[in-house]
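RETRY 2/3 - previous attempt timed out on the joint model. Re-submitting the same 670-residue input unchanged.
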Amino acid sequence: MRHRLKDVAERAGVSVKTVSNVVNGYVHVRPDTRARVEEAIAELNYRPNLSARNLRKGRTGVIALAVPELDIPYFAELARHVVTAAAALGWTVLIDQTGGVREQERVVASGITDHLIDGLIFSPLALTADDLTNLDGTPMVLLGERVDHGPADHVVIDNVAAAREITTHLVGLGRRRIAAIGSQRTPEGASARLRLDGYRSALEEAGLGYDETLVAPAPAWHRADGAAAMRALLTSGVRPDAVFCFNDTLALGALRALHEAGLRVPDDVAVAGFDGIEDGRFSVPTLTTIAPDKERIARLAVELLANRIDGDRTAPARELSAPYRLEPRESTKGR
Amino acid sequence: MRHRLKDVAERAGVSVKTVSNVVNGYVHVRPDTRARVEEAIAELNYRPNLSARNLRKGRTGVIALAVPELDIPYFAELARHVVTAAAALGWTVLIDQTGGVREQERVVASGITDHLIDGLIFSPLALTADDLTNLDGTPMVLLGERVDHGPADHVVIDNVAAAREITTHLVGLGRRRIAAIGSQRTPEGASARLRLDGYRSALEEAGLGYDETLVAPAPAWHRADGAAAMRALLTSGVRPDAVFCFNDTLALGALRALHEAGLRVPDDVAVAGFDGIEDGRFSVPTLTTIAPDKERIARLAVELLANRIDGDRTAPARELSAPYRLEPRESTKGR
DNA sequence: AACGTTGACTACAACGTTGTAGAAACCAGG
DNA sequence: CCTGGTTTCTACAACGTTGTAGTCAACGTT
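RETRY 2/3 succeeded.
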């Protein structure tokens, strides 16, 4: 049985608005009236109807987080932090999976703005700036790569610098034939491009030169893709002594493929990943990685969104940068 | 700029209700009228206000999925399937993380029923039957262990039989000192208790007897807990030749601890898990596991919920069982 | 020609809430 | 005892949508 303000009001012998005032903590209510109302609320187990409240207020208190896939650990971990950060501001988070498919991402970016959410935190893979025009002004914050200087707020990490740093780390171990796994030619591959840039610039800085045969593409960034790419590298005969994988799941797949090929990590081949997921602390061997500060990313994103929702919607888009840390582990121990 | 039915109606020169009829696909609208309205909708980029629609209809089209933690891969994978199954029925899924904390789970079970969701799919860890009484009749489906025959619909797998089957598998490999990791004494440990029962009954069936020193508790079921429990077993000197971990993340932690102790898997110690998560296909060694049919679980849960929402809310609670499969992999290869 | 049926549309009320405006009671200061 | 301000409360309208009831014209049947 569902009750409304009206039922509570009748039971407490006051007007509907007075009950509303009590519910909303309005100060000018006599203590005994407040007590009577609260008693009635408790007796009826009254809960406000959020649809009605939302309609009236024009706010829903719900923000959406759109990620490619929840069972990619990086996004699951990120989601947890976003939910936590949003809860601190009294928001509920609706998590949306786009599959990284452009069409679905466009639906999320434009269609989901059905007054069901106040704002959107969006980690796009396939989206381009064009897709972001039709937004009805629903506040949005993008995570990850810049989409051609789109009109939205942005939280990024410096992918190029991070990729350069971890590649340099491999160089510092004395590795000379450093492969890369995860390149992508599609427009979806914005992260891939930046990380490849960083990899390349580190190699050139070290005087090692860039060898295209050492770069293996990966259609998606799952474990299976990493394993397949690693196998391809091995059978091609290029004999790398290190591999930089553009994310950790790729790296876990690569570890697996190296194990199957009878190669030892890090003795024969050093392996490094990117994302700092929890799995990497427990894999055999543990995985060297770039760990972005996910908590900070989440908090910055939520704060940017809050500013948009409550503040000036026409202010110029801001871009904030979150820190990362290189975490050396067993997979790149010196020999 | 947001537009309403009224704006569209004025532009198309019809009544508000006619626009509503077009939007909702009502058949008795003249083709030319429909065309005019649709043109106006497109020009104004009109989107219905879901809060208003929900208020009017008493439905929101949103269901919630409450799980302990999204970055436990099992729940992330489950979430994906639930989202997919729900989308097939036109529902949006709001994912809620309870942290497995009883208080938070109670909030979800009772409080979230704020008319924002039409129903709830709930995978509780800590909840008891008492907590489920105060529900206002919001439809709910429980996943996993039965909560003392609570009043809600339920999708389960046969934990006892599954645990017995995988333990018997270990016995069949000739293992005689089979340890277990993941026992819990708290009321939260319903799954733990059932899996322990299955383990125990398999041992007795095989005439091996139950040795309490071979059972290691784990406060939570994360990788770190599995690693710690494994280390505890090893230092206690009980020398197991196999371990059944009550979930896969525990098992991955155990693999890690065994590796650090210089023991080989499966040669020295065979390891089995439970949940069938993707990681287990790529770990070194790959992980033998019980893989519940998550897609089926998700579909059954969504269907049960749909029946509650659209059908008889007072019908007696139903309990459906989903199948599972034993998936033998490297971690229990015969020696 | 009168009749019922159907199609195409509209006016109105209602969903449950909260903002606005204002009434009534109370208080302090002159 | 009046004035002006505050406290406490209420009536009403509005948020944007859809269900209900109804109007009116066109049509086919007798």
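Residues 111 and 135 of chain B are 8 Å apart (CA to CA). Closing ticket.
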